[in-house]
Amino acid sequence: MKIGQAFLKITEVKEGDIMEILNEGAWVESKQFKYPDGNPKQDCQFQIRLPLGERTFTMSKTNREACKEAWGDETLNWIGKTARIGITPLPQLKKNMITLFPIDNSVTRFLSPSNTTGDSIGAKATTPTSDPFRKAA
Question: For a pLDDT cut of 70, what percent of the chain falls above it?
Answer without folding.
Answer: 72
